[in-house]
Amino acid sequence: MGSDCHHVQVFTDVLAGLLHLLEARLPRFITLLRRLQFTNFATGKTDSARIIIASDMPLQERHGNTPNSNIIRHFTAAYLDPSLGLDTNMWPSLAVCASVRLPSTTGMVWGTGTAWDCELVKSRTSVPRSVELLLTLPSLFIKLEDGTPVAWAFLAVDGSLCSVHCEEPFRCRGLAKTVSAKLLRTKTSSFGNDNFAAADVAPDNTSSQEMWPF
Description:
By secondary structure, the chain is of the alpha+beta class.
């Protein structure tokens, strides 16, 4: 076969060789790596999931005594799961977040999300994520001492930030940025230990863009 030939493969399970291929190229492929790592979660994979790889040579677990992923030079990979709707996503962007402390406000505490909290989260966004899905995602909340949520953020199935929100009476205090940064800093280890985190912001989402003024 000529050097310009390529191979397309479709898998239902995550190959260790693909993980090695992506890890060697961090942070460029951080969201795809996170999505593949999410398949290790209790509800992180369905029967509809497919992993598609196009590369200059077939991806295998081993090539002699050397992992095949060390030999592949050019490739494109995607994770598709039609059953999850918009949570099959492929975003090229990434953001690096600095350490941020909780603003000096009284009467607020860090908290986790309950089913009732996730109902509130669902009502505050136009993105159709179910309560059941939200409960499986790593998340962090800032709440009043009586348990009322005032700001929150989630990590999507690809490890990127999603559903970041701050309730109207508590805005302009840095709460959304703070809960997002702490979530990225403390919960990305649920996916892997490479110390990378990612965020994607739509060009027309001005409020989210103001959180990361790079």
